[in-house]
Design brief:
CATH superfamily of the largest domain: ATPase, nucleotide binding domain
Low-confidence stretches: none
Strand content: 15-25%
Strand order of the largest sheet: 5-4-3-2-1-6-8-7
Radius of gyration: 21 Å
Shape: globular
Distance between the termini: 10 Å
Helix content: 25-40%
Mean pLDDT: 97
Bound molecules: adenosine-5'-diphosphate
Structural class: alpha/beta
CATH architecture of the largest domain: 2-Layer Sandwich
Number of helices: 14
Largest sheet: 8 strands, mixed
C-alpha cells in the first residue's frame, strides 16, 4: 500500500511517496516558487535527483507535475496513479475542532476553513493542496493530519492564558501548540524504548529545528507545550523571539513608527538566534562563528540552551517528575554542543551526559551514562512517516 504525503505551503509543496508495508520512501521531492515560475526537484529512491524548471501558475499544476514525475517512464517509481492508495495531508491548524487525524470530507474542509483565521499563512495553502489532489485523484481517500491535534489533550489550566475569559469565548484565544505530529511520533518511540507502553510515563520532547518547541507528555498525552496561540511563543528559535513581554510590541511600534504587522515581522523573521547573532539562523554557522570567538554568536547559543533548559524544568514541575527526555529535529538530532549545553542545566535531575555517546548525528541513541538518573536520548523525527501511518490507520 502506497501513501502520498503532501505538505503544502503558500509557494511550495513537499511530498513523499511511502510504501507503508515496508515504511520505505519510494520517492520524495519539492515544488518551489509556485505562482512565481516553478521548479520541481524529484528524488526517486536509488536513482539520481531530477530538477526541472516548469511553469507552475498554481498548486494544481504543481501536483500534476509531481504525479507526472512519479509515473514517468525513466525517473518514475510507479506505473500509474492506481498505485497511490491514499493521500495524507499535513494541516497546520485544527483549532479546537480536531483532536486527531480525520478522513477528508466536504464537512472537514469547511471546518478547516473555519480555522483559517488562526493560521492565515498556512491553512489556506494546506486547503489548496487538498483541493488540487482531490481534483486530480478524486477516487483516492485523503486524510488530514494536524500539527495541533496532539496537544488537544492539554488540561485547561495549561492552555488558557491569563486574559479575560471573554477572549477565549469570543475568539478562541488560547494555547494550541504545534509540531504535534513530531512530538507524538518521538514520544511514542521514547515510551517504547523505555518499555512503558501502556503504563504510566512522564517524558519531555525537545523538537529543536528552525522552529522549536518542548512538550510535556504524560501517559502518552500532551499535557503542556511551549508554543502557544501561534508558533511564535516559547523557545528562542532560528528567527523567532519565542516568549517575550508583549508590551515590547507597542514599544517597538512607537519607537520605530512601525505598524503591528511590521513589528510582528521583526518578531517572527528578524529575531531569534539569527537576529541576536547577526550571523545566521543555522546552528552550523553559529557554531563556526562561536568557535572563532564571535561574542554575539556565543550569546545566542547560550540563550538558546538556557531557555530550553528552563522549559524542561517547567515541565518536570508540570508532571511532578520525568522518566526520560528526548532531543529531535535538525538541531536536536545533530548538534551535540547544544544538547550538551542544555544538559549542563539538568544536574539537579541526576542527569549525566555521556560525552562519547553524545557525538551521535541523525541516529537514535542514548546520550547519558548508565548511572544517569534520567536517561536522555536523541531520536530522529519523521513527520512524513507519522502522517503516512495515521493516514493508513484511517483508510484501511
Ligand atoms: P525545519 O523543519 O523547522 O525547517 P529542521 O528540523 O530541518 O527545521 O532543522 C533545521 C535546522 O537544523 C538548521 O537550521 C540548522 O540550524 C540545524 N541543523 C541541521 N543540521 C545540523 C548539524 N549537522 N549540526 C547542527 N545543526 C544542524
Amino acid at each position: 500500500m502506497n501513501v502520498f504525503v503532501v505538505n503544502c505551503g503558500s509557494s511550495s509543496l513537499k511530498y513523499q511517496l511511502i510504501n507503508i508495508d515496508t515504511e520505505a520512501v519510494i520517492a520524495k521531492g519539492i515544488c518551489e516558487r509556485i505562482g512565481i515560475d516553478g521548479r520541481l526537484k524529484h528524488k526517486p529512491t536509488g536513482k539520481e535527483e531530477v530538477s526541472k524548471e516548469v511553469a507552475m501558475p498554481d498548486h494544481k499544476s504543481a501536483v500534476s507535475y509531481v504525479l507526472e514525475a512519479l509515473t514517468d517512464s525513466s525517473y518514475g517509481v510507479i506505473k500509474d496513479l492506481s498505485e497511490i492508495d491514499a493521500i495524507g495531508h499535513r494541516v497546520v491548524h485544527g483549532g479546537e475542532k480536531f483532536a486527531s487525524s480525520v478522513v477528508i470530507t466536504d464537512d472537514v474542509i469547511k471546518a478547516i476553513e473555519e480555522c483559517n483565521d488562526l493560521a492565515p499563512l498556512h491553512n489556506p495553502a494546506n486547503l489548496i493542496g487538498i483541493a488540487a489532489c482531490g481534483e486530480l485523484m478524486p477516487q483516492v481517500p485523503m486524510v488530514a493530519v494536524f500539527d495541533t491535534a496532539f496537544h488537544q489533550t492539554m488540561p485547561k489550566k495549561a492552555y488558557m492564558y491569563g486574559l479575560a475569559y471573554e477572549y477565549y469565548e469570543e475568539y478562541k484565544i488560547r494555547k494550541y501548540g504545534f509540531h504535534g505530529t513530531s512530538h507524538s511520533f518521538v514520544s511514542k518511540r521514547l515510551i517504547e524504548i523505555l518499555g512503558k507502553t501502556g503504563q504510566t510515563s512522564k517524558v519531555i520532547i525537545c523538537h529543536l529545528g528552525n522552529g522549536a518547541s518542548v512538550t510535556a507528555v504524560q501517559d502518552g498525552r500532551s499535557v503542556d507545550t511551549s508554543m502557544g496561540f501561534t508558533p511564535l511563543d516559547g523557545l528562542i528559535m532560528g528567527t523567532r523571539t519565542g516568549s517575550i513581554d508583549p508590551a515590547v510590541v507597542q514599544y517597538i511600534a512607537d519607537k520605530k513608527g512601525y505598524t503591528i504587522d511590521e513589528v510582528m515581522d521583526v518578531l517572527n523573521k528578524k529575531s531569534g538566534v539569527d537576529g541576536l547573532s547577526g550571523v545566521s539562523s543555522d546552528f552550523r554557522d553559529l557554531d563556526e562563528a562561536s568557535m572563532a570567538g564571535d561574542e554575539k554568536a556565543i550569546l545566542a547559543l547560550e540563550m538558546f540552551a538556557y531557555r530550553a533548559a528552563q522549559y524542561i524544568g517547567a515541565y518536570v514541575a508540570s508532571m511532578n517528575g520525568v522518566d526520560a527526555i528526548a532531543f529531535t529535529a535538525g538541531i536536536g538530532e545533530n548538534d551535540d554542543k547544544v544538547r550538551a549545553a542544555i544538559c549542563q542545566y539538568l544536574g539537579y535531575l541526576g542527569i549525566t551526559l555521556d560525552e562519547e555517546a553524545n557525538k551521535v548525528r541523525g541516529k537514535e541513541a542514548k546520550i547519558t551514562t548508565a548511572d544517569s538518573k534520567v536517561p536522555v536520548y536523541a531520536i530522529p523525527t519523521n513527520e512524513e512517516l507519522a502522517i503516512a501511518r495515521e493516514t493508513v490507520a484511517l483508510v484501511k
